[in-house]
Write a structure and sequence with these properties.
This protein has one helix and three strands, in the order H-E-E-E. The chain has 83 residues and is an alpha+beta fold.
Length: 83
Protein backbone atom coordinates (compact mmCIF):
# COMPACT_ATOMS: atom_id res chain seq x y z
CA UNK A 1 0.00 0.00 0.00
CA UNK A 2 2.85 2.40 0.69
CA UNK A 3 4.38 1.68 -2.71
CA UNK A 4 1.62 3.45 -4.74
CA UNK A 5 1.86 6.90 -3.05
CA UNK A 6 5.67 6.79 -3.24
CA UNK A 7 5.60 5.99 -6.97
CA UNK A 8 3.07 8.77 -7.57
CA UNK A 9 5.20 11.25 -5.59
CA UNK A 10 8.33 10.19 -7.50
CA UNK A 11 6.53 10.58 -10.84
CA UNK A 12 5.26 14.08 -9.95
CA UNK A 13 8.74 15.14 -8.84
CA UNK A 14 10.28 13.84 -12.07
CA UNK A 15 7.72 15.72 -14.17
CA UNK A 16 8.55 18.96 -12.35
CA UNK A 17 12.29 18.61 -12.89
CA UNK A 18 12.16 17.21 -16.44
CA UNK A 19 9.34 18.97 -18.32
CA UNK A 20 8.38 17.66 -21.76
CA UNK A 21 10.21 19.45 -24.55
CA UNK A 22 8.49 20.28 -27.81
CA UNK A 23 10.13 18.27 -30.59
CA UNK A 24 10.61 20.05 -33.87
CA UNK A 25 10.53 17.80 -36.94
CA UNK A 26 13.97 16.97 -38.37
CA UNK A 27 14.15 18.28 -41.94
CA UNK A 28 17.68 17.04 -42.71
CA UNK A 29 18.82 20.37 -44.15
CA UNK A 30 22.06 20.36 -42.15
CA UNK A 31 22.93 16.66 -42.31
CA UNK A 32 25.93 17.13 -44.62
CA UNK A 33 27.39 20.34 -43.18
CA UNK A 34 30.43 18.36 -42.02
CA UNK A 35 31.52 18.11 -45.69
CA UNK A 36 31.60 21.88 -46.27
CA UNK A 37 35.13 23.20 -46.67
CA UNK A 38 38.37 22.47 -48.48
CA UNK A 39 39.84 18.97 -48.13
CA UNK A 40 43.10 17.36 -49.25
CA UNK A 41 42.48 13.95 -50.76
CA UNK A 42 44.38 10.88 -51.88
CA UNK A 43 42.62 8.49 -54.27
CA UNK A 44 43.89 5.08 -55.28
CA UNK A 45 42.05 2.90 -57.82
CA UNK A 46 42.65 -0.25 -59.80
CA UNK A 47 43.43 0.74 -63.40
CA UNK A 48 41.56 -2.16 -65.06
CA UNK A 49 39.10 -3.66 -62.56
CA UNK A 50 37.67 -7.18 -63.07
CA UNK A 51 40.47 -8.10 -65.49
CA UNK A 52 43.00 -9.57 -63.07
CA UNK A 53 45.14 -6.45 -63.28
CA UNK A 54 47.22 -5.44 -60.26
CA UNK A 55 48.17 -1.99 -61.57
CA UNK A 56 47.05 0.81 -59.28
CA UNK A 57 46.72 4.48 -60.25
CA UNK A 58 47.09 7.12 -57.54
CA UNK A 59 45.82 10.69 -57.53
CA UNK A 60 46.32 13.53 -55.06
CA UNK A 61 44.27 16.67 -55.02
CA UNK A 62 41.93 19.06 -53.28
CA UNK A 63 38.16 18.85 -52.93
CA UNK A 64 36.10 21.96 -52.24
CA UNK A 65 32.51 21.57 -51.02
CA UNK A 66 30.22 24.62 -50.92
CA UNK A 67 26.63 25.29 -49.87
CA UNK A 68 24.04 25.61 -52.62
CA UNK A 69 20.79 27.59 -52.34
CA UNK A 70 21.74 28.93 -48.89
CA UNK A 71 22.21 25.39 -47.56
CA UNK A 72 18.85 24.08 -48.76
CA UNK A 73 20.28 21.75 -51.41
CA UNK A 74 22.89 19.01 -51.50
CA UNK A 75 26.37 20.58 -51.19
CA UNK A 76 28.25 21.21 -54.45
CA UNK A 77 31.66 19.56 -54.81
CA UNK A 78 34.54 20.43 -57.11
CA UNK A 79 37.70 18.34 -57.22
CA UNK A 80 41.12 19.09 -58.63
CA UNK A 81 43.26 15.98 -59.04
CA UNK A 82 46.90 15.56 -59.95
CA UNK A 83 48.64 12.34 -60.86
Amino acid sequence: MIRTPCCFLLLCTALLYFPAQAQTPHDGSRDFDFEIGSWKMHLKRLQHPLSGSTTWVEYKGTTVVKKVWNGKAIPMMAARLER
